[in-house]
Amino acid sequence: MSFYVTTPIYYVNAQPHLGHAYTTIAVDVLARHMRQRGEDVFFLTGTDEHGEPVADAARAQGLQPKDLADRNAERFKALMPRLNASNDFFIRTSDEEHKVRVQAVLQRVHDNGHTYKGLYEGWYCPRCADFKVENEILEGNRCPIHEIPLERHKEENWFFRLSTFQEPLERLYADRPDFVMPAHHFNEARSFIGSGLQDVSLTRARLQWGVSVPWDPGHVFYVWFDALLNYYTALGYARPGEDLTERFWPANYHIIGKDILKFHTVFWPALLMAAELPVPHHVFVHGFLLGADGRKMSKSLGNVLDPFEVMAEYGTDALRFYLMRDVAFGGDGAVGMDSVRSRYDTELANEYGNLASRTIAMVLRYRDGMIPRTDTDAVLAREFDGLATRVSALLDRAEATQALELIWQRVRRLNRYVEERAPWQLAKDPGAAGALDQTLASLAEGLRVISVLLHPYMPSSTQRLLDALGVPQVAFNGADFAGQGGGGSVVALEPLFPKRV
After folding, report:
1. Which pLDDT value is given to residue 300?
2. pLDDT at 28 over 80
3. What percent of the chain has pLDDT over 70?
4. Is 117 a catalytic residue?
5. Which domains are delineated in the chain?
6. pLDDT, position 265
7. How far is 49 from 261, CA to CA, in rounded Å?
8. 384-395: per-residue pLDDT in tens?
9. Residue 281 carries which DSSP code?
10. CB within 8 A of 191, min separation 6: which ones?
11. 128 catalytic per annotation
12. Catalytic residue check, 20
């Protein structure tokens, strides 16, 4: 089966930050897990390069918009391997292939009668590149997201007949209660639709930095319609000479932040309906990462957690683990360097890393590096029964934090098993050789299983451990606890997560 998953595309008006890393890592976890299951996976990310925020940022730096886009797009591209992201394509909305496909889709929307020309006047946020309706505006005519004063704009635009899709969207939400996830964001989107949809601007006449409108070249498309279509257009040219649209469309998951919920859960499905294209299966909305002070991260507040600093000090896998572990994916949560350090020390170094080191060291010491080929502990095995199935069911719902917790419970169980069985005591008793064999075989097998399950979260560290255990395979069909030790040989392993001084 095919599995298509996307990040939002990231604005190039600034450099990459923790929020970009967070969403990218979450999508990578899903993509890697699905590849483990043998699915045909396509993982898309990229940059959103048109619109007023980019043009304004370029002007403030004395640059042309294309120059700023080129510079910052390269920074986002460089972020992907730094995060160990396994994306299949990186789209830029300044790609000529994207522009041509945007024009083709929106021409179809126009030809289907879903556009008209009119005069628009309203409150506009230049940082959101969005006109705000009255029930969205904060006191003092301020943006609800950026809390900056809104600007009053009046201009002639082409409009998209969003109001036409009031009933189709209501039916979509009635028929598919998991179209938007988690449930509280589903209710938020449905409430927005229920409050009554107004037609929205499809084009802008006062801008030049955008995709030109084929039926009215004096206009460019409003950046959000250009940007949303990236999920569809990329499939047409991601692989030279091959169109992947039929193979992967519609997307299984768009993973987005809650600040862009309206565009992805209302505008996007309506636009696809207008173009007679299938809507995605799911839109999963995650929350904000907050500073340790509980406020949204901001450089001016000094509460920003720098992902590059975390990776420099603790490694990429530690950042990946931390972001999926510390804040329940789908909700808001505070993050900070102190909590990174705590998770690293208590969980990565002391629990998982120490378990790996002890297990391999004991197999080397007591059995000359050979995992005993003997029956594993049936009682311990029962505690792993159904684990892989439950993990995959959670990740099918993009519940990455909950799946990680389920796996980590077994990490802790294996550590307790070491203490219960005390292999160092069994090794002193020649009559307990069989019990020692079973203990070591069970520990090695449990460690193998949890490492396979943890692989999407920490691909480098888990692969090192599996290689040291002599079982490098990460396929998901090998994630069940075997009834017998593998009988293979292990090799010494440097600490996966060295203690920090």
Report:
1. 54
2. yes
3. 97
4. no
5. 2-286 (3.40.50.620), 336-478 (1.10.730.10)
6. 98
7. 19
8. 999 999 999 999
9. S
10. none
11. yes
12. yes
Let me know if 17 is a catalytic residue.
yes
Q: What pLDDT, on a 0 to 100 scale, did the predictor assign at position 297?
A: 67
Catalytic residue among 33, 50, 98, 128: 128
Question: How many CB atoms within 10 Å of residue 11?
Answer: 22
Burial class (CB in 10 A: 0-12, 13-18, 19+), 260: buried
Residue 100 to residue 418: CA distance in whole angstroms: 61
Select which of 77, 258, 281, 296 is catalytic.
Answer: 296
pLDDT of residue 133: 65
Query: Contact 41/5 with Cβ under 8 angstroms?
Result: yes
98 is catalytic: no
Evaluate the CA torsion angle 473, 24, 259, 232 in order and state its sign.
negative
Give the ranges where 94-207 is alpha helix by DSSP (H).
96-111, 166-175, 183-194
Is the distance from CB of 198 to CB of 163 less than 8 angstroms?
Answer: yes
Q: Which residues of 85-117 are buried (b: 16+ CB within 10 A; e: fewer)?
A: bbbbebbbbbbeebbebbbebbeebbeeebbee
How sure is the predictor about 55, in pLDDT bands with cuts at 50, 70 and 90?
confident
Catalytic residue among 17, 33, 99, 262: 17
Active site residue 258: no
- How deeply is 337 buried, as exposed, middle or buried, from its count of CB atoms within 10 A (0-12, 13-18, 19+)? middle
Beta bridge partners of 138: 142
Mean pLDDT (the chain, rounded): 94
Give the active site residue among 143, 254, 264, 282.
143
User: How far from chain centre, in Å, is Cα 66?
Assistant: 27
Catalytic residue among 117, 184, 299, 499: 299
Catalytic residue, chosen from 77, 146, 153, 258, is: 146
Q: Is 282 a catalytic residue?
A: no
Options 114, 125, 132, 262, the catalytic residue: 125
Residue 286 annotated to the active site? no
Q: Is it the case that residue 481 has pLDDT exceeding 60?
A: yes
- CA torsion, points 77, 82, 83, 89, in degrees to nearest 10? 30
Q: What is the pLDDT of residue 128?
A: 67
Task: Tell me the two tokens of residue 261.
Answer: 């919920």
Q: If you average pLDDT over residues 9-31, what whole number do you get?
A: 94
